[in-house]
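Question (not urgent): is this output format expected?
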Amino acid sequence: MEKPLWMICVTHMLVEIYLLIQVALIPVITTEFHLSLLEASLVATVPSLIQLFMNIPAGFFADRLSPNQLLSVSMFIEGLSALLISQTNSFWTLVFGVSLLKIASPLYHILGLSQVSRLSKPEQMSKSMGLHNAFGSLGSAFGVVTLAVLLSTLGWRWTYLLWAFPILAWGFVVMNSSHLKTRKRERPATQSGRRLGRLSLILSSGFLVFLIAIALREIGSTGTSTFMTTYFVDGRGLSESTASLIFGLGPFIGIVGSLAGGYFGQRMGAKFALTWTIVACSISLGMLALVSQLYPLILIYVLYSFFGNAVWSPMNAMVANITSEADRGFGFSVYFFTEGIIGSVTPTLAAGVIQSSNVWFIFPFSIFFLILGLVALQFLPHHKGQALQDRPIWR
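Got this back:
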């Protein structure tokens, strides 16, 4: 693996450290701050709105600034926000700190994925995306496992404090790295030509169908992930630390799932791989809703996590294939904006469903939208010679 790609993957690992901690903490902060489930869901909803509105400017910066600048800024924002969260004793200060922390994600992801796509050969795109996503899963796993250990000892705030220092240190490393001190080459197209190219991308039938499919899938995925620890605690009677520990298995399995998703995408074609991983997610989620004993629950959750993380590599590869190199940052911006707007409203929507029934209903809710996304994906057009055309399964 080339040094720049390796550094981008390590940055991805660190930027994902806190990804799942906020949702894993929902049953904890509900008790600590005496909140209803709907109020507690704001720790996921409000930061997601902030992240949503950062996606478009992040794409603008990714197409114009050096990797050093954006990668280091994302690390500094994340590290300083984590220090603030570690000192909070107020729910609204916690929401504010997590909202600041979420700014780091689009600043990193749009640049990072654009760089991975540019550093990879076309035939290696899915595999590179799988490796990149595996590092992200590793970071999420480190964060949740740290939380599970500290919940029963020093307290959840120490999770934010302990990881803040290596994140800030890595920000200085990438800022001064000679391997990342490059700028994108100038684009030969005129300003009006670039605008027309971007407009045609947004209005293209393939990209629109793709965005609809991933939006529907995102509703199902976010609904489950936001309230999984709540289900473990309230629905299955597990302790908060045990629920966090089981939840933390997901990202570790996600490392293997991400690599498998990259392999499947390279061998089968991105659309085919994405289709079957969503099918597998729906089936395993349905099984998870039916089991009650601890060990089968853990086993099926591991299975769901494997396929849930396998979807990212083919999805990211499809975005890279749809877009031109010159406007890839913009393409990822629209992609993340779509996911962001869904991620910002789904926790509150799902919390309303749960409060009007019970926490178990998160499963049929999520499965319904996963299936809708799967159906929408089948309308993705294929034309010979286009980048979206799937490669054959066997050579």
